[in-house]
Amino acid sequence: MAGKEKATVDHSPAPTGEIQPLNPKLTTNVTQPNSDFNGNIPQSGVKLINMSEVEVEHINWLWYPYIPYGKITVIQGDPGNGKTTLILAIAAAATKGEALPESKTAEKPINVIFQTAEDGLGDTVKPRLLQAGADCSRVIVIDESEKELSLSDARIEDALTRTCAKLFIIDPLQAYLGADVDMHRANEVRPVLKKISLLAEKTGCAIVAVGHLNKGSNHSQYRGLGSIDIQAAARSVLTVGRVKGDPHLRAFAQGKSNLAPEGSSIAFELDPARGFRWVGAHPVTIDELLSGKYDKETAAQRAQDFLIAELTGKAIPASDVFEMADERDISDRTLKRAKPKAGVRSFRKENRWFWTIGSDSDESPEQECQQMIAENSGILGKTAESIGITGFSPHHEKQGCQDAYTGNLAPLPPSDKTGDAYEQG
Fold this sequence. Notes:
- The protein is built from 13 helices and 14 strands.
- It is an alpha/beta fold.
């Protein structure tokens, strides 16, 4: 075409030993890489973030390591396994600032927003909150009588701002995705979850979504009903199930934890006569919950075998033993119960407690007894409370060892109570 010069390239091979230069007309617009990049990104049409300018954020927790503030947590399980009762018990504790199982300290009371599409407020939700001891003045519900709520609804942010709520519960998640959202399509679910996730970060509110399980997979991460993006958006996923061998016992196991090491499974009781009651750490695993194959004797035997294998002929710091057991999904409670059956002895050396089977130690029987009492202080204290004894101190120097061996849980004066400090070392 007249007025335009067509670039040509000589494709003939270069003579041996020579390098054929590029046609300069083809390289005039090639941007050369900047080898002197110093971290300053030039201005252009695309918005970029330099990681050197990003501040490290500290994660705050409603319940470590299960429910983080400012993030999404999913609680999932089959119908009738106690998901709603569980989250209402958590909400009740939050409204009163009470410590939850395995928590070290209590927190300040917080406001809670609870949205449900399945249970009546007056006949189900309020009675369960009262049974759990909630401060109902701190529990709020967004009125859906005139318009149904969805996770894309601006009323959620307005409610969180007005009430300063730090826990927002959605039960069930599938009912609040929106009428036009197919929960099985990732491209439809992802934008909704992204929006609510950003809202959680903006407000610092813990968002807990309750969901059902499907029946099509044996893997815990694929058991959640709907798109896998629901699991991906959550920073923590808790699976609720029945514990085989006890018709009233339930537990949840943590199947996903992005912000902290996975926590122990936590058991709770749903007794028709007594209602909800926390049991505490439990050795059941998530696979055992889903399959219904948990065997109490198997868990105890597994802990006993672990102790024998690791401690025979050698002494290991007690704190290290607990860490090793945790890596094998053996709970502290199961480990302590297996300790005497495995023949484990304790001794103190250089201000540290050691566990051993068969190795020599310099401990006295009194030292071993005191360590045993320290380890089981929580169990003994709860036993005393259950039979009406108050002020019990398993650390009491004068009669602690005798009580531990004879079962004589005599009450002690409140001034003697030293707390339930737990020694792992």
